Amino acid sequence: MLYEFFYPLRDWWFGFNVFRYITFRSAMASVTAFGLSLWLYPHMIVWLKSIRMGQTGRGEEIPKLHELYKHKTGTPTMGGVLIVGALVLSTLLWGNLHEPFIWAAVLVTLLLAGIGFVDDYLKWSQRNSKGLRPGLKMAGQWVVATLFGAWFLTRPEVGTVLDIPFAKQMVVDLGPWFLLFIILVVVGASNAVNLTDGLDGLAIGCAILIALAYAGMSYLSGHEGFAEYLWIPYIPGAAELTIFCAALVGAGLGFLWYNAHPASLFMGDTGSLGLGGALGTVAILVKKELLLALVGGIFVAEALSVILQVASFQLTGRRIFLMAPLHHHFQLKGWPENKVTVRFWIIGAVLAFFSFSTLKLR
Fold first, then answer.
1. Strands (E), the chain
2. 294 contact partners, CB below 8 Å, separation of at least 6
3. pLDDT tens string 29-59
4. Which of 6, 166, 205, 319 has the most Cβ atoms closer than 10 angstroms to its Cβ?
5. Backbone angles phi, psi at 51, to 5 degrees
6. What predicted TM-score, i.e. pTM, was given to this entire model?
């Protein structure tokens, strides 16, 4: 929006030429989202407390966590509304709105956050932790991902091939199965973030690290010279997603200010489903789908721990972990909440840095 207004004025004053640089607009999008969050969250927390939009007591459902979670009961939730709001507003302010990839990322994020909002609202209105039925929630996610995938495959600049990390000229063509692959990536990422959102600052901290990594990948993929040098697919328009990712970083940091232990606010499903969908969508748009499993290794491990736990119990009657998702396993082993969170962040940061090596080691 600001790009559309100020950049045409560069002939009147050369200073407006700065709006052509994605690096400048990305930095400003991040600062804008962070500033909005710091300004609005205190008011939001007061309002959520006034309507008693608080965390339900997990101790009633999970006795093992009663002592660990009883202090969280009543903490305001649905903070994801402002995460997504700051992300979208900052993106629209600083992005080039002629680029369809920007709109795709924004719309998928909003739609998945909307599903999460319905779930959070039902939990609040019904005063329990059940919310939206799992089948309906999953069906909504599949519909959103299918619509996005169908649109994506109509784009002339993309195909049905997967770029293989560490391989210079090796690709795998999925053909008609690529749509199903897109759905699995978007829905899987959305649910993985949702499963990870169980400790103060854990999910948002990992999401920030992934967004930073994909900001760099978006810029490189959308720059023809860098893409050619690194032997990665050149995606026209992908560089604008750098602004989207930077805005996500700013919005995430603003939320983390209040979500750090002890949390004053939780993101709820509104935030976790929206953020996961945003990350999965960007990975698809810049043709770095397989790298998401590496960059988002923490989210993958959390989701796999649940799958393995359920499968093991049903097949053998035994549990692999003390409790799933994985962060609860370490809690029950006696790790303080902060230690689990910070160590998972450290692993997430290492994975994010390592992911960049795949761009050159081909």
1. 161-163, 171-173
2. 165, 351, 354, 355, 358
3. 999 999 999 999 999 999 988 887 766 555 4
4. 205
5. -100, 5
6. 0.93
